[in-house]
Amino acid sequence: MPLTKEFKETIMVDLQDREFRAAYLADAVEALHGGEFSVGKRMLRNYIDATIGFDALSKAVGSPAKSLMRMLGETSTPRAEQLFGILKHLRQIDWFEFSVVPRGRRESRPAARSSGKK
């Protein structure tokens, strides 16, 4: 489903804010990781359009701008090497770090037994 012009313009303005960019990029990665590839790729495309642009990204990752645009299109299936190259560069330009954080609570270890000595 294509984005409306008004929505796309709003996203472009919002992506000028660094905190919003960080959350948006995290959501894009989460969408990709969660199997929502078309959503994640669309979000990455918006992110690139609003920030670095495809021409600058092209020079940074060594792929033609048109290829990068196609790679993040609806029907493409980018190779992991290409996708991670893009993500690596995007996080470097804004000094973002990705991390894996467990959801929920893990079972805690059993409490240590006392030796009975005081």
Q: Features of this protein?
A:
single chain; 118 residues; mainly alpha; 6 helices; 0% strand
Q: State the major sheet.
A: none
Assembly form of the protein: single chain
E-strand count: 0
- Principal-axes geometry comes out as globular
Low-confidence stretches: none
Helix content range: 55-70%
Computed over alpha carbons, the radius of gyration is: 20 Å
Number of helical segments with 4 or more residues: 6
The helix/strand order is: HHHHHH
Structural class, from helix and strand content? mainly alpha
Strand content: under 5%
Overall residue-averaged pLDDT value:
84
Q: Measure the end-to-end span.
A: 69 Å
Please characterize this protein's 3D structure.
The chain is mostly helical and 118 residues long. The chain has 6 helices and no strands. The chain has helices at 5-14, 18-33, 37-50, 54-61, 65-71, 80-94. The chain is globular and about 45 Å long. The model has no long low-confidence stretch (mean pLDDT 84).
Please describe the topology of this protein.
Elements: H1 5-14, H2 18-33, H3 37-50, H4 54-61, H5 65-71, H6 80-94
Helix pairs in contact: 1-3, 2-3, 4-5
Short structural description:
The protein is mostly helical and about 120 residues long. The chain has 6 helices and no strands. The protein has helices at about 5-15, 20-35, 35-50, 55-60, 65-70, 80-95.
